[in-house]
């Protein structure tokens, strides 16, 4: 039995795609006794972490770009189209994740302040603006950030 476990671990470590194909086949056939359960559990856990990490990253970058539109007035006219495209991209990525995993909305709500602050750090490094000009607390809500029709300023008026 212990040799069989070592073979499964070895396959997982040496040929992940083959391990995945064999594990899937065993699951489909109901061959639960011969599944490498330890590594399968690890993989399932990592899927959840990966989704949360991606959602956090998209939210941070979304906040960064919303702050660029709000506060980086000297670059706004020249960079608006690119920043707006990035905002749309991050919103789409988040919405696609929320469609397949609606429970991520709670995770995003719980992590909004943290990702706003991270986005603020990135923005301030990029812009070299005075830190005191950009509030440490969000100047928009998560709902506004995710709303495809919302921008922190009206480009037709402010340009």
TrEMBL record:
State what protein this is by name. Answer: DUF29 domain-containing protein
| Entry superkingdom | Bacteria
The record's section on Pfam families has: DUF29 (PF01724)
Q: Which InterPro entries match?
A: DUF29
């Amino acid at each position: 039995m212990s040799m069989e476990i070592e073979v499964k671990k070895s396959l997982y470590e040496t040929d992940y795609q083959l391990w995945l194909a064999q594990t899937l086949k065993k699951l489909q056939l109901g061959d639960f006794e011969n599944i490498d359960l330890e590594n399968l559990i690890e993989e399932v856990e990592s899927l959840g972490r990966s989704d949360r990490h991606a959602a956090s990253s998209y939210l941070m970058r979304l906040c960064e770009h919303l702050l660029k539109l709000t506060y980086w007035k000297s670059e706004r006219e020249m960079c608006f189209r690119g920043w707006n495209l990035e905002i749309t991209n991050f919103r789409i990525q988040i919405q696609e994740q929320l469609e397949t995993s609606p429970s991520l909305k709670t995770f995003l709500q719980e992590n909004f302040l943290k990702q706003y602050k991270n986005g603020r750090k990135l923005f301030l490094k990029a812009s070299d603006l005075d830190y005191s000009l950009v509030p440490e607390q969000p100047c928009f809500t998560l709902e506004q950030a995710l709303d495809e029709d919302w921008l922190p300023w009206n480009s037709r008026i402010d340009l």
